[in-house]
Amino acid sequence: MDEFAFAMRGKRLQDFLKGRREYLGLSQEVVAERLNISARAYGNWERGRVKEWTDQKLYALAETLEMTTYQVDRLFRIAVDRAPQSNQQVTAFRGRSEDPSTTAFLGDYRTMMDALSLPTYVVDHRGDVKIENKAYRDLFSGVRPHGQAMPSRSFLRFGLFHPEAPAILAGHANWQLVLLAQLASKLDSNSEDPELQSIRREVLRNESLRKAYLHELPYWTLSSGADPMHHEGALLELHHPDHRIGVKACRLVEETPKSLERLGLTRITLVLTNITESHAPQHGIHERGLARSRHAA
């Protein structure tokens, strides 16, 4: 390929990726975080300055930028001048619905969410984040890359496994117990899902998480009823990185319209309130679960 053709391909790729990223309302930094690469590296990707486009890189881009099957085909043709290969990676890629009305609805829903002041996000049945608003991105903007445990990819993985989670999720053991309840609930309805099974294996490899999952969680769930399984049972504590906001009481509230439910998606909002006597975080969740498990033993 001559220099002019190479430059034109780079410009077409840049226009395509930048247009898709801006349509989703994402910064280069957020996309880079989702890809687990540096912002500088993603800037090079977006400008087409890549030594070799592998299928793995292109599929990662497609999933991060939530592309439809048609858009994936276009990405491949621009980047490597061919259609996607009919192989395992293609089968594994989960393209978004190509229904224009669905695409338009999700775009409008994203715009609506960005207008909200409280951090809110939309997840699929695995807990993978599909849409997040500006308040959610601001809350976790300072979190350093750590594999798949990034809040922009999975709040579940972030709360359980990210080393910086305790700095934001105050009383971290309590948060972990609530998130383990969510994991157990997801496994009840999707027991064979490989991603959920992978999270469970990672939990069981961690000594403190294994103890909480196998011993503390069953007793806490029995005593607290069903609400914690649906995110709304426990009032927790969150330390906002903006010092003007500071420490807040936090409740995870699920409020999902039927239009999202039909797509297999769930919306969760982090409702932040001032800490008062009537809104006091439940500091003893972890300890009470541990005490009950010891008593039963």
Describe it for me?
With 297 residues, this protein is α+β, with helices and mostly antiparallel strands. 54% of the residues lie in helices and 10% in strands. The chain folds into two domains: 90 residues, Orthogonal Bundle (434 Repressor (Amino-terminal Domain)), CATH 1.10.260.40; 197 residues, Beta-Lactamase. Strand 1 and strand 2 form a beta hairpin. The protein has 15 helices and five strands. Helix 2 crosses helix 3, helix 11 packs across helix 13 and helix 13 packs across helix 15. The chain starts with a helix and ends with a helix.
SSE layout:
Layout: H1 3-23, H2 28-35, H3 39-46, H4 55-64, H5 69-80, H6 88-92, H7 100-114, E1 120-123, E2 129-132, H8 134-139, H9 155-161, H10 165-168, H11 172-189, H12 194-205, H13 207-224, E3 235-239, E4 247-254, H14 258-261, E5 266-273, H15 285-296
Helix pairs in contact: 2-3, 4-5, 11-13, 13-15
